[in-house]
Amino acid sequence: DTAVSQTPKYLVTQMGNDKSIKCEQNLGHDTMYWYKQDSKKFLKIMFSYNNKELIINETVPNRFSPKSPDKAHLNLHINSLELGDSAVYFCASSQGDINTEAFFGQGTRLTVV
Amino acid sequence: AQSVAQPEDQVNVAEGNPLTVKCTYSVSGNPYLFWYVQYPNRGLQFLLKYITGDNLVKGSYGFEAEFNKSQTSFHLKKPSALVSDSALYFCAVRRGNTGFQKLVFGTGTRLLVSP
Known about the structure:
The complex is a heterodimer of chains A (113) and B (115).
Chain A: E1 4-7, E2 10-13, E3 19-25, E4 31-37, E5 43-50, E6 53-57, E7 64-70, E8 73-78, E9 87-94, E10 103-104, E11 108-112
Parallel strand pairs in A: 2-11
Antiparallel strand pairs in A: 1-3, 3-8, 4-5, 4-9, 5-6, 7-8, 9-10, 9-11
Chain B: E1 3-5, E2 10-14, E3 19-21, E4 24-26, E5 31-38, E6 44-50, E7 56-58, E8 64-68, E9 73-78, E10 87-95, E11 104-105, E12 109-114
Parallel strand pairs in B: 2-12
Antiparallel strand pairs in B: 1-4, 3-9, 5-6, 5-10, 7-8, 8-9, 10-11, 10-12
């Protein structure tokens, strides 16, 4: 019974395409996140939503647009994909955002060719 | 802005020996500190956290970490390493007591435990 699930696990696509990554959590958490892990394993937050409201929006190109239809889902849509977007994208969730740990999905490996 | 430094890219230790993975942080105000582990092709798994209270924090799989305010460190330790502990370890920090704050990760330390 997966707590935080992402689909797809692997995504290979051509430059210029538009793609989406979906994330769902069944933990009843009210806060969800998207992180990007680059080829050097460096993790950086992209977005955070609390109760469907965007609360953290790092310096991310406008081509990236998160959408949270409800508290249990946070999707990431990427327009006009570029080679530099190739990375592993992790979704995570937590209850509140202060002192509770985050639970991570297994990641989506995006390869742009 | 908060930041985390993990000075070692890789730590090598023999099975049965104690291990330490180093982490230092920089944050204004009270820090909330976390350790996560990442196995190959997997997401991050939470190990332990320091919020307040006892400086020695115990976590999953026999790991513990010691919060040292004067040295701004939060080193991860285990008395006896297992081969199965081999993985990528991340230290993370966020500012406490100030509402929603982002969790900032270090660059990770690869732990290799040899049989």
